[in-house]
């Protein structure tokens, strides 16, 4: 998969006409995947290049910085999902003042026509674009007639009357309902973060933990304890590969009320390994919620609860494996 980055005027020629979809695609959830697979199918049928135009940061970072939604996926995570679905080219835009000021006609002319030689564009039926979201699917159709590309609006995908959305996925994560988040995303909710030095308290009580430094815009589950599956990255940040062994564990999200009860931490304890993880990046899949975070009267009570949490996490992960095996067999 190729990646074009930065100013569209500097992008190389894609080599052929493209079938394009546009969006942040945060989470790359099941509704997104329907649109993306439609682009891949249409591109294959009409000898076009399956292409996604996406944004490095959510546009609200500029438009309403006090209302930036927590991010479900980083850019590298999105790129991985795009590639897995068969996307051949991704164009990453910086939503800056210049891009913000482009009207719908100029956006189509500069980015899609000149930059990507668009032959077809597939978007959700509620798609809006251009300065102050003045453009809609009807305008896109008229511009398609002018510039010679097809417009393929896609209906919103739903299950049991509820459409899949990044907003609902964020709400599920924020409530701690990681199982519901997984149903929307089509895979477990995942955090990627670098391990930083902690205070060593976990190791001191027999449960060493990896403390994760999160991006300030990262979506984080509600305070509590979770059963997780973890992979260790082979490079800096989340740009490396995460194809090593899967490690089971538990993660605590919260303020550790038994100790200081102030600073929020996300700390992972991995089962059956004792690794030096400082500076490494972990990819953490949240599989199931175990309990709320709470304060204990002393270290002995805390250790007993962590031991019980670990046992419950092993049980839940085993159940998940059994269910997955049953689904594959069926």
Q: What order do the helices and strands come in, and which of them pair?
A:
Elements: E1 2-5, E2 18-22, H1 30-45, E3 49-55, H2 60-63, H3 75-84, E4 89-93, H4 97-101, H5 104-116, E5 118-124, H6 137-147, E6 150-154, E7 158-159, E8 162-163, H7 166-175, H8 178-185, E9 189-196, H9 201-204, E10 210-213, E11 224-232, E12 247-254, E13 265-270, E14 281-291, H10 299-329
Parallel strand pairs: 1-4, 2-3, 2-5, 3-4, 5-6
Antiparallel strand pairs: 7-8, 9-10, 9-14, 10-13, 11-12, 11-14, 12-13
Helix pairs in contact: 5-6, 7-8
Short description:
The protein is an alpha/beta fold and 330 residues long. It has helices at 30-45, 60-63, 75-84, 97-101, 104-116, 137-147, 166-175, 178-185, 201-204, 299-329; strands at 2-5, 18-22, 49-55, 89-93, 118-124, 150-154, 158-159, 162-163, 189-196, 210-213, 224-232, 247-254, 265-270, 281-291.
Explain what you see.
The protein is an alpha/beta fold. It contains ten helices and 14 strands. The protein has helices spanning 30-45, 60-63, 75-84, 97-101, 104-116, 137-147, 166-175, 178-185, 201-204, 299-329, and strands at 2-5, 18-22, 49-55, 89-93, 118-124, 150-154, 158-159, 162-163, 189-196, 210-213, 224-232, 247-254, 265-270, 281-291. The strands form three sheets. Strands 1-4-3-2-5-6 form a six-stranded parallel β-sheet, sandwiched between helices. A six-stranded antiparallel beta barrel has the order 9-10-13-12-11-14. Strand 2, helix 1 (30-45) and strand 3 (49-55) form a beta-alpha-beta unit.
